[in-house]
UniProtKB/TrEMBL annotation:
GO biological process: gluconeogenesis; glucose 6-phosphate metabolic process; glycolytic process
E.C. designation(s): 5.3.1.9
Protein name: Glucose-6-phosphate isomerase
Pathway: Carbohydrate biosynthesis; gluconeogenesis; Carbohydrate degradation; glycolysis; D-glyceraldehyde 3-phosphate and glycerone phosphate from D-glucose: step 2/4
Enzyme class, spelled out: isomerase
InterPro entries tied to this protein: G6P_Isomerase, G6P_Isomerase_C, Phosphoglucose_isomerase_CS, SIS_dom_sf, SIS_PGI_1, SIS_PGI_2
Top-level taxonomy: Bacteria, Pseudomonadati, Bacteroidota, Flavobacteriia, Flavobacteriales
Length: 541
């Protein structure tokens, strides 16, 4: 169990409040002018990563007070409790052990309910390895003995976003298998995917921790119908793979026992890409690259567990975010990767961060009296510059940004990489410095110069990584996972349940019955009005 301490009642919080009083109107430009060594002092270099956090509204005192806060809230103990398999997801009475999924060492053990969970995790990894190799070399075949050409991953939320993001990110490591993700319950899209595929050589992964998620099961049924109606009365069991905690349910769907891979209740959906949920990753980039991804995450796990908080990437990034969220009152954060291949990272982070920390009750079940989970959003740079950066530069809101970029491109001969990265550096510099004073006089006279002025002082982190590889991607994802965890600890909330989303699922099920029977029950007047309109105009063929 995690302790329950109201952060706003701590001494460090009180000191941070007072400190904020002194910092509120301080301009970062002044801080840089006063201390030429600022960037040298405010960075962390670890493995292939460089985090420059000097472009933030902080002083060394801010950092030391934030670290005091972490210590007063016993962050170290919380980290230990997670790694040791403590029941830190108390509302669901579960341990939280996505870190165990990427522990590749042979001699470790993590004991939950008297059992070493690493044993089954290792066995599952071996099965994924063997299966992937057989699909890729064509020795595991379709019902007709053909090599599979395409894979459909059916799943939603954590059973979709993480694997899809990784496969997209590692496009330069791809095997020849075509990879398709079906998550939303949207027949028009599903049909557009199926139309392009050959059922005879399509493998279907049904990924659902619970095997009860309606969207996934209904989509899987549709795909099953597509296979059966196209291929006739043949044994199609080799076309199905299941990943779930619910083995019986997967079997009654028609997945053979030997094609079912386990999930564990100590792994939340949004932290599950490292398990068999990531089987589409192993198929898409080969098992060795999948293992390098796990190794990267494990390397970050060790850093998070062992590094001094001041040098600890996830801890520091989490504390900076708390500083803005709880003292400056900035509500959103943007993540802008300067890599088209990381285009799906913001969506994955949205589930990871907002499903985890979108909570308004503390660990005693009482309403919190401070802000919790931040809103996360983003898009790839440079494209994002031509979309929403105007608001960063001259809008009335302040949005702290994580700029993520790579020193080296995948292909050595890439000449455009330096153009991409010039934008990367130029934007955070412009956001810091702004454009003021005599600089604009020459730009078009005093009237126009008002509009051309921008004040700068906009905070950002720069995360510069040597190269986008499976390993560095694993490190990056794990960095944000641990940042999320630290924030949950600071905010005294439970980060690993998601009752809000589950309530939405129940309401949808009830409404579905009403639509079917055309019998609209008691609702607020808006919902009732909309449902009646829908039922009246819905044309059923
Ligand atoms: O959105 C709620 C949720 O439970 C997520 O946490 C999860 O990733 C998703 O639904 C899918 O759940 P499952 O893997 O059980 O189908």
């Amino acid at each position: 169990m995690l302790e329950s301490i109201n952060p706003s009642g701590t001494l460090a919080w009180k000191k941070l409040r007072e400190h904020y009083g002194q910092m509120e109107f301080v301009q970062m430009q002044e801080l840089f002018a006063k201390d030429p060594e600022r960037a040298n002092k405010m960075n962390i270099q670890w493995e292939d990563f460089l985090l420059d956090y000097s472009k933030n509204k902080i002083t060394e005192e801010t950092i030391s007070l934030l670290l005091e806060l972490a210590n007063e809230l016993n962050l170290k103990d919380a980290i230990q409790a997670m790694y040791n398999g403590g029941i830190i997801n108390a509302t669901e009475k579960r341990a939280v052990l996505h870190t165990a999924l990427r522990d590749l060492s042979d001699n470790s053990s993590v004991i939950v309910n008297g059992e070493n969970v690493l044993t089954e995790i290792q066995e599952t990894r071996e099965r994924i390895k063997a299966f992937t190799a057989k699909v890729l070399d064509g020795s595991y075949t379709s019902y007709s003995g053909k090599k599979f050409t395409d894979v459909i991953n059916v799943g939603i939320g954590g059973s979709d976003l993480g694997p899809k993001m990784v496969v997209h990110a590692l496009a330069n490591y791809r095997t020849e298998l075509g990879m398709h993700y079906i998550s939303n319950i949207d027949d028009d899209y599903l049909q557009s995917v199926l139309n392009k595929l050959n059922p005879e050589t399509t493998l279907v992964l049904i990924v659902s921790k619970t095997f009860t998620t309606q969207e996934t099961i209904e989509n899987a049924k549709k795909i099953k119908y597509w296979l059966e109606s196209s291929l006739g009365k043949v044994d199609l069991s080799s076309h199905y793979v299941g990943v779930s905690v619910a083995i019986e349910e997967a079997m009654s769907f028609g997945v053979k026992r030997e094609n079912i891979y386990p999930m564990w209740d100590f792994v939340g959906g949004r932290f599950s890409l490292w398990s068999a949920v990531g089987i589409s990753i192993a198929l898409a980039v080969g098992y060795d690259h999948f293992e390098q991804l796990l190794d990267g995450a494990h390397t970050m796990d060790k850093h998070f567990k062992e590094a001094d908080f001041k040098e600890n990437l996830p801890v520091l990034m989490a504390l900076l975010s708390v500083w803005y969220n709880n003292f400056y009152g900035y509500e959103t954060e943007a993540v802008v990767p300067y890599s088209q291949l990381l285009g799906k990272l913001p969506a994955h982070l949205q589930q990871m961060i907002m499903e985890s920390n979108g909570k308004n009750k503390d660990r005693n079940g009482n309403p919190v009296n401070y802000q919790t989970g931040t809103l996360i959003w983003g898009e790839v740079g440079v494209s994002a510059q031509h979309a929403f950066f105007q608001l960063f530069h001259q809008g009335t809101k302040v949005i702290p940004i994580d700029f993520i970029g790579f020193v080296n491109p995948h292909f050595k001969e890439s000449t455009n990489h330096d153009i991409l990265m010039s934008n990367f550096f130029g934007q955070s510099e412009a956001l810091l410095k702004g454009k003021i004073g005599e600089e604009y006089e020459s730009d078009g006279g005093p009237f126009l110069s008002n509009f051309r002025e921008f004040c700068g002082n906009k905070p950002s982190n720069t995360i510069l990584i040597n190269k986008l590889t499976p390993k560095s991607l694993g490190e990056l994802i794990a960095l944000y996972e641990h940042k999320t965890f630290v924030q949950g600890v600071i905010w005294n909330i439970y980060s690993f349940d998601q009752f809000g989303v589950e309530y939405g699922k129940i309401l949808a099920k009830n409404i579905q019955n009403e639509i079917k029977s055309k019998n609209i029950c008691e609702h607020d007047s808006s919902t009732a009005f909309l449902l009646r309109y829908f039922v009246k105009n819905r044309v059923v063929e």
